[in-house]
Amino acid sequence: MESRNRVNLTAVESPLEMVLTAASLIPITHHLLGFSLILIAFLYNFLEIHFLQDLFTGFRGQPVVLTIDPCSQLYRDVVSKCKTLHGRHIFMTSDGGTLALDWVKNAQVKGQAFQVDGPAQKDGENPILIIVPGLTSASDSAYVKHLAFIMAKRGWNVVVSNHRGLGGVSITSDCFYNGGWTEDVRNVINHIHCQYPEAPLYVVGTSIGANILIKFLAEDGINAPVVGAAAICSPWDLLICDRFMSRKLIQRLYNKALAVGLKDYAQMHEAVLSRISNWEGIQKSRSVRDFDDSATRVLGNYETVDTYYRRCSSANFVGSVMVPLLCVSALDDPICTREAIPWDECRLNKNVVLATTEHGGHLPFFEGITATSVWWARAVDEFFSILQSSPRKIEISVPSVNPGESSIDQAPYVHLSQDGTVGGVSDETQVEHKEQNKAGDRIHVELNQPPNTDQGMAAIVAPVMKRLNQLSRQNRTSLWVLAYIAFLTTWPLVGSAVSVFFRRRFHARFSSP
Which residue ranges run through the membrane (predicted)? Predict the structure, then answer.
């Protein structure tokens, strides 16, 4: 009878049941309040909202990090001075393709939509801005309209070069655009330059359009009839971004959303795509990589998807750009990861200025509590305006890198594991970036670490420190993960040894007379 009571007493005093009993005594309203706070905190981080941070800073914005050559004339003459569609023309390419060029002039900026009733009349020497939209975007995209009307108010003529099959035009050839297809941009720029030979040309590319623009500028070099350019939220390295979009839940959601947009684009041109690509694979695509494997790779004549990503990544070409180029990227971009940003290549090219912000996402960069303005559009406006009004022509620096040579075969190399983790593998020993503040902005300068000549223990420690530095530069949280794994794997052995040590020590002390 006593043993049965003890069993019941033990069951009643179970820690789990005691916790559940205590939780049941808390009012349900308190539980709902706690759950609501947890849900708000989760959504705040999941949706990458930073309203509270902006509120505490008085919506003063955030610092912009510039990665440039400190001796760059472009920085001294232009960037240091920066404080922040009139009709449709159908352009036919040599292969029979059709492109829609949508124009807007300053006299028509009060309109709410692009007009399609005829080509623009020549305005002589007025500067012209050419916009290359992102993936599946066209002249009706909100951010494209925003930039177009801002520049039109400045008195510029603006033209949006819609990709093939977008902007309401049909596919009229077997050639489609992709992240490395520069022929359409080249033909449009040359066409506009011939129509307006006295007008300075400026180009802005967004997202995949930025990747195409950088590749075009590197391929044409000094022969590109462009005065200045801007690349906004370029993916830089398509292979790294592909791995990145398969990691976390938010990236996978973006990946599926982009895949849905690509499938809708393919559905509009089913008559052509079903004939020259893997239409069944397109319909089953659940990610951008799936679509690229079934359509982009096939249409572009690439052996594999990875081959397409490697050959078309703008990080391989930015070192060969020979016109003033402003690059804008957000470090919290949920699509184009910061791991793909070519810091060294941008710093070594005196024609390139890389501006990075802590927040901004992929293209929004909203400003103010009402989010009625976009920061990067204002930055592009100011950059081009000062570049246009510069009293003397900016001296173009000729990069030492061969434009035809891809940096994929040069150090530093990138190792991609099966789970999408990116790690650096380089033959050079480098130290962390040093930051310098100048005119409110920080300039990253990376120095080479001198070779280690010590013998003995130093020769053993140096390779370990080198790998730790490389690992920490790629992802600082990896060090904590390694420490956590080391703790879990060594604790059973260490814990047993400590337990035996203290048991013997205290046993000897308490057993002694």
Answer: 20-47, 479-502
